Amino acid sequence: MRLILYSKPGCHLCEGLQEKLEQILATQNLAIELEIRDITTREDWLLAYEYEVPVLVLANSPGLEAFEQPLPRPSPRASVQQIQQMLCKYLSNIKKNDAE
Length: 100
Prior knowledge:
The protein is an alpha+beta fold. It has helices at 12-27, 43-49, 80-99, and strands at residues 2-7, 33-38, 55-59, 68-71. It is 43% helix and 21% strand.
């Protein structure tokens, strides 16, 4: 699985969320890769997310059938633990749907 973080340079909300996600992935045994996408590098991303960043999307690994699920934006005040709980909730839902 991958987490895609759509962000832009100078966005403090984006930087804060990225730091928290990196902490979670560094300390937990989650099979998730974090991909940062700068929306200023592609016009389609800029048009889609210019006023929405940070945007967090859960996606499958490259080479598999395309799957992307936007996740609710966590509050900037959310703790690392709260963000981790949110990620675990969505991961378990995806695994449950895959099993069915």
